[in-house]
Design a protein that fits this description.
InterPro entries: Glutamate_decarboxylase, PyrdxlP-dep_de-COase, PyrdxlP-dep_Trfase, PyrdxlP-dep_Trfase_major
Pfam family, one: Pyridoxal_deC
GO molecular function, one term: glutamate decarboxylase activity
Strand content: 5-15%
CATH architecture of the largest domain: 3-Layer(aba) Sandwich
Distance between the termini: 40 Å
Structural class: alpha/beta
Number of domains: 3
Strand order of the largest sheet: 3-9-8-7-6-4-5
CATH topology of the largest domain: Aspartate Aminotransferase, domain 2
Shape: globular
Number of strands: 15
CATH superfamily of the largest domain: Type I PLP-dependent aspartate aminotransferase-like (Major domain)
Number of helices: 13
Keywords: Decarboxylase, Lyase, Pyridoxal phosphate
Biased composition (Basic and acidic residues): 1-18
Order of helices and strands: HHEEHHHEHEHEHEHEHEEEEHEEHEEH
Length: 489
């Protein structure tokens, strides 16, 4: 890069930093100064003018496809190994036939139903399959849609709750300016976003050692005539536990009988929606409860599909307000659309249908049971280790969490253990519990399809090695509190 270009680039960096928050300036400066201003190019692919290319601005000319591939491929080789990522809930493995289908369909746009009518038909079938799986009273006619993930699905579910509440209040001649929504303080961040973006007061039922989950008592203390809905989680992000959906629904039924307040529920089944129907079929949590009006799930979690795919289904068509559905004619037909995104990939929807065909109910049971078996094995073995005590064991979704026993050591904590496990390639998050319990740090393992029992034994061996190393320290590990975070979703 010429000196003039370097000077121009640095001037641009300085201008950008002038408008940055102070908290970002030092990080930005560090990143810019640590990295060279050019990529070096592997000579194997070099041609004239390709000895280096700018890193932070677009070059004047293009390059060979092999050169561009080499630059990107070299950088992502520094990412973690997806098979050793025990932090994320998102699928990191699909079988070769599914990957082949993916490569044949990644050009399909899900919104363009006129151009890709059969993909749209398959999406519709997937909606019907989920509605049936979750016991909708009208599975062939109720409303549902695919999304880019559970976050978008939750936003749509929340919007429907708010709109239904507003409509009912207006019909009664009551004000609509103070809506609120109730959920536990362990809720995933998307619900905080929903409340913020759509101007709904979030009412958190705070957790405590005596009340470690959202329960009927906490819900009844939080709701009132302005409550648009109660959100219950089927598989908490922190521990993997199911919240007692049926008990909460029963408490709200009793409340309506006493007071006339009719408060609907939405179940955030991002993880549990593809687990409970197969591993806990006797559990009542879904549309068998008339108070449950909508359910979301992540197809790219235990739906076993690559990211990003989510689903939301309403109990009956009337539970989705008609005025939230838009119709567009500029894609070649009069198409209904209800989503926050417009154009989005259609391939993941086809992969979801592939899984339905490939696995069936028995196959989903086998896959999820295998993951649960690994989770139960690991949690049992970790419970035996002197430093730890379990918070959950993987009996709900195949996710379990543990904490460091009080008084075990002052030389290391779970953040140190998380970093030490990265030496072996394992990504295991350590993070604090929700507000009012944030003094407790926990670790969590998510067992997904592809994490075999053999890998579980290898992980357990490395965990014991990491603990042995930390226990051998003569003094406390140095800590930077800014680095003591490892939460992953």
């Amino acid at each position: 890069m010429s000196q003039d270009r370097k000077t121009e680039f640095q001037n641009n960096v300085n201008k950008d930093e002038e408008i940055m928050p102070d908290s970002q300036k030092s990080l930005s400066r560090h990143v810019q100064m640590e990295l060279p201003h050019e990529f070096s190019v592997n000579p194997l692919f070099a041609r004239e003018g390709e000895s280096d290319v700018p890193r932070f601005q677009m070059s004047d000319k293009g390059m060979l496809p092999e050169t561009a591939y080499q630059i990107v491929h070299d950088e992502i080789s520094l990412d973690g190994n997806a098979r050793l990522n025990l932090a994320t809930f998102v699928s990191t493995w699909m079988e070769p036939a599914a990957e082949h289908l993916y490569t044949k369909s990644f050009d399909k746009n899900m919104i363009d139903k006129d151009e890709y009518p059969q993909t749209a038909e398959i999406e519709e079938r997937c909606v019907r399959i989920l509605a049936n799986l979750w016991h909708s009273p009208t599975p062939l006619t109720t409303m549902g849609v695919s999304t880019t993930g559970s976050s978008e699905a939750c936003m749509l579910g929340g919007l429907a709750l708010k709109r239904r509440w507003q409509k009912a209040r207006k019909e009664e001649g009551k004000p609509v300016d103070r809506p609120n929504i109730v959920f536990s303080s362990a809720v995933q961040v998307v619900w905080e976003k929903f409340a913020n973006y759509w101007e709904v007061e979030p009412r958190y039922v705070k957790l405590s050692p005596e009340h470690p989950q959202l329960d009927a008592q906490g819900v009844l203390a939080a709701v009132d005539e302005n409550t648009i809905g109660v959100v219950s989680i089927l598989g908490e992000t922190y521990t993997g536990l199911y919240e007692p959906v049926a008990a909460i629904a029963k408490a709200l039924d009793d409340l309506q009988e006493r007071s006339g307040l009719d408060i609907p529920m939405h179940v955030d089944a991002a993880s549990g929606g593809f687990i409970a129907p197969f591993l806990q079929p006797e559990l009542v949590w879904d549309f068998q409860l008339p108070r449950v009006k909508s359910i979301n799930v992540s197809g790219h979690k235990y739906g076993l599909v690559y990211p990003g795919l989510g689903w939301i289904i309403w109990r009956e068509a009337k539970d989705l307000p008609e005025d939230l559905i838009f119709r567009v004619s500029y894609l070649g037909g009069n198409m209904p659309t209800f989503a926050l995104n417009f154009s989005r990939p259609g391939a993941q929807v086809l992969l979801q249908y592939y899984n339905y065909l490939r696995l069936g109910k028995s196959g989903y049971y086998d896959v999820q049971k295998a993951s649960q078996k690994v989770a139960l094995f690991l949690s049992k073995e970790i419970q035996k280790m002197e430093p730890f005590e379990l918070l959950s064991d993987g009996s709900d979704i195949p996710v379990f969490a543990w904490r460091l026993k009080d008084g075990y050591t002052l030389n290391w904590n779970l953040y140190d253990l998380s970093r030490q496990l990265r030496v072996f390639g394992w990504q295991v998050p350590a993070y604090p519990l929700p507000p009012d319990m944030e003094e407790v740090t926990i670790m969590r393992v998510v067992v997904r399809n592809g994490f075999s029992m053999d890998l579980a034994h290898l992980f357990l061996m490395n965990l014991k090695q990491a603990v042995a190393f930390l226990d051998s320290l003569d003094g406390p590990m140095p800590h930077d509190s800014k680095c003591d975070n490892g939460f992953h979703h």
